[in-house]
Amino acid sequence: MGLEAKLNSDGFLVTQLDAVVAWARKNSVYPMPMGISCCAIEMMASADPKYDIARFGSEVMRFTPRQCDLMIVAGTVTYKMSHVVRKIYDQMPDPKWVIAMGACTSTGGMYRSYSVVQGIDQFLPVDVYLAGCPPRPDNLLNALIQIQNKIGRTRARDFQNLKLPELNVIQNN
Amino acid sequence: MELKQLISQKLQTSFPEAELEFSEFRNEFNVKFNKKFVNPICKFLKEDSELEFLLCEDVTAVDWAKRKNRFTVVYHIFSLKLNLRIALKADVDETDCVIDTVSSVWKTSNWQERETYDMYGIKFKNHPDLRRIYMPEEFEYYPLRKDFPLLGIPGSLPLPKK
Amino acid sequence: MDRLTKDDVNPKILQKLLEDSDITIEDALENEMILNMGPQHPATHGVLRLLLRLDGETVVGCVPDVGYLHRGYEKMAENMSYYEFIPHTDRLDYISPLANNVAWVLAVEKLAGIEVPVRAQYIRMIVAELARVASHLVAIGSFAMDVGALTVFLWTLREREKILDIWDILCGARFTNSYTRIGGVANDAQPEALALVKKFIEEIDSNLSECEKLLNTNRIFIERLDGIGVISKEDALSYGYTGPNLRASGVEFDLRRATPYLQYDKIDFKIPTFSEGDSLARYFVRADEVRESAKIVRQVLQLMTPGEIKANLPKSVLPQKVEVYSKMEELIHDFMIVNFGINPPVGEVYHAIEGSKGELGFYLVSKGEGHPWKCKIRSPSFIHIQSLPHLVKGRMISDVVAIIGSIDPIMGEADK
Prior knowledge:
The complex is a heterotrimer.
Chain A: H1 3-8, H2 12-26, E1 31-35, H3 38-45, E2 70-74, H4 79-91, E3 97-101, H5 103-107, E4 128-129, H6 137-152
Parallel strand pairs in A: 1-2, 2-3, 3-4
Chain B: H1 2-14, E1 21-25, E2 28-33, H2 38-47, E3 55-63, E4 71-79, E5 84-92, E6 98-100, H3 109-120, E7 123-125
Parallel strand pairs in B: 2-5, 6-7
Antiparallel strand pairs in B: 1-2, 3-4, 4-5
Chain C: H1 11-17, H2 25-30, E1 33-37, E2 49-55, E3 58-65, H3 73-77, H4 86-90, H5 97-112, H6 118-147, H7 150-171, E4 180-181, E5 184-185, H8 191-215, H9 219-225, H10 233-238, H11 244-247, H12 255-258, H13 279-303, H14 321-326, H15 328-340, E6 347-354, E7 359-366, E8 374-378, H16 380-386, H17 388-392, H18 397-407, H19 411-415
Antiparallel strand pairs in C: 1-2, 2-3, 4-5, 6-7, 7-8
């Protein structure tokens, strides 16, 4: 009965620790606004004094991916932009979650044309889909609460043994 | 109207061999001419002291999808002095898909012509920087032509892996 | 800018500087850098990519790269009827959606030759001017936020929320409301909506002055913007500027005065013009235009009389839903118009209105069918972004942010 086995089991201490860590994580979710088009305006509106997003713990919207845990993709993603979105997603540190805001990101929305990706789940793993064109700010707050509930149920061992992406190490001589 | 007659008279006297055609629809004045005379006519309209068409609002093309003279390049220009807007049109055939640029006359037509090239494939001679503007550079088709499908051609644009 | 040569630097410092790298002396002092101000950036208004060539902190050259939001509007317009395209026009300039609706509907009515009743025209004017006020509030707020004054952004957004409440009651949706229809507007203006409009325009003057008090005599704001991004009158016309950017360079040109549409020839309003052509002038023009729009709305509210809100042309104008469900002829007309579209005569038309960013124009070619043969959207933001390399040359990186904010591009419009 080593420490490793004790930590991986569901004993009393470990679940309490998990609960505390999950509670801390879910009440301080920092979103990264990937604001691309009209939904970005409703995202900005959810940060203004009427629909305050800061009271849910998302005090600041950091624009650098290295400091965030939630990416809100707001706006139509075209094929040209999809590479940029994927790059930013890869730059975020684990654990991370994604909200697909609006109809355009969920399924391509009202744009059934040659240059729009019909749903961002073709290249990104998505946690919550929001309906609306654009969804009202209250709807975005609802999605944030769903993500918080999802985070509240996680345990520490969900984030161990993750597969790291392969890196190409450049030899410097 | 006297203004439209004035313009048609001036153009007829200065460019007699340009195959000019004048028409009017819903109170708008249209001038059609041979595509070789694009640059001299536009320069004349901009620099004439009575007309002064200083603002070039729009440069675009129409695809008629027929065998002869498939495209028509359309220019909308506005004169602040006369408060008048006219439309200039020039036919371009699919086999000889080239027309002179007017970016030396109005600087705004630089990007407008790039957009027309990107969407229709009409090349502009002497353009300072003719490359695609909306679609990525590797895209091989011209989207607004009538034979390109609305949903696109699968595989023509790459997507990152999940 | 003075450039250092190797004689100006102390040899010991020079040696330390180049000690553990393999660049030569010429490289260190004379290299230029290429910086990618990428599509995802807090200060570019939307997905605009700028490639800057820098010499230290000074910008030597700039190449804008657009197309990250190209959704294929013009191709989609060729495949759907004139009615179906109205919600798409909302998403063009998504900060002032109703102005785009008005522009599209006016172009289609010009093509089809439909006359709109006077009350509908007045309602369209009120709505278009409110859209202009909303757009300018966001422009001023985000512009001030880019330059550093964060409070102004929240205050102008608070004012904008009041306009969104008005639209919620009037049109049914807060934002991207497709309110206008071909031949009129969707439903009549309710009395409580008009009362809210009256209350709003009475308060906007003092609320805007509150925001301006923070900015107009602020030394940092003025020094950051005075003389930055200057464009002369001839260059502005040659680059195709329209709207507030042109009026800040000394040309008194407003489409509501030059080619009046709706009922603008009966309204008395000023055209604010400044002659310096720099970023500060563009900010002042927008602030003054908000006040002029409030004046226009006040006059329209006095001129409004009760009346019809849709034209009486059963073959081209959608009937009211109440009648569709109860009368036979309206049901048939509704079915025909929705499925086959209105069929305007063969011809081409170009109609432009004074949108909040500049001249927003629609060029429609019709072959007599229910859908347009070609639709071209002339968007002002696309034209304005083209002139960025000219404005930015010789300035520093932080000025680039201020200049983009003062031009006020919206990428949904620029990329179509």
